[in-house]
Design brief:
Largest sheet: 12 strands, antiparallel
Helix content: 10-25%
Strand content: over 45%
Structural class: alpha+beta
Oligomer: single chain
Order of helices and strands: HEEEEEEEEEEEEEE
Length: about 210
């Protein structure tokens, strides 16, 4: 009898490590299954083209390091879009002043401007005006006015462009065209398509 027990114990001792490993694996599986799950990290969502804030009957002014007024934007309603960092404005009225004192204004039924107001697209009854300015020792710059249903203006570089019909009034002269690209710094204007002009007598050729 003792011999049989000893033989049985020896056989059991052979399989004991396997049994222990099985029990350990089973316990580990149970713990993993019942352990609380770690919270999943929130998936970052790409910004959508929807307004993230609104403004009503507002005025925004920007100044340079010396406190000089650079630009002002006024409107009835504004919607900011985070994905493009642009501001859409209803009944927009804008004013920009260069370091030399040249004043440019812009109005439209609707405007789309970048974050600092230096670039603006004007839609519906769009008007951009550069006021006349006196220059020491030179002929004064005549008043310039651009009109159209769409105008794209870069106020800091004094450029106005449109791929739609426009009317350009320079002093008392008047031009119309199907499209236009005007660069005041380079003193170049390109009128394309059906171009018509009316030059009033008495206009100084040196006025630009």
């Amino acid at each position: 009898m003792i011999l049989r027990l000893r033989q049985g114990w020896e056989r059991l001792s052979i399989y004991l490590p396997v049994l222990l490993m099985g029990m350990l694996a089973l316990g580990t599986w149970w713990l993993v299954r019942n352990a609380p799950k770690a919270p999943q990290a929130a998936v970052a969502r790409a910004p959508t083209h929807e307004p993230d804030y609104f403004m009503r009957t507002f005025s925004i002014k920007t100044f340079d390091a010396t406190g000089r007024l650079e630009s002002e934007i006024v409107g009835d309603v504004a919607r900011h879009y985070l994905d493009t960092d642009t501001l859409e404005i209803d009944k927009a009225r804008m004013r920009s002043v260069t370091p030399e004192g040249r004043v440019t204004t812009a109005t439209a039924n609707r405007a789309l401007t970048n974050s600092d107001g230096s670039e603006v697209q004007l839609f519906g009854n769009a008007i951009v005006t550069r006021e006349s300015q006196s220059r020491p020792g030179q002929a004064p710059q005549p008043r310039l006015e651009f009109r159209g249903e769409f105008l794209h203006a870069w106020l800091n570089t004094e450029r106005v462009k449109s791929d739609q019909p426009v009317t350009l009034t320079r002093g008392s002269d008047r031009f119309t065209a199907d499209s236009m690209d005007y660069d005041n710094l380079d003193q170049i204007v390109q009128l394309k398509g059906r171009v018509r002009g009316m030059l009033m007598p008495g206009t100084s050729p040196g006025s630009r």
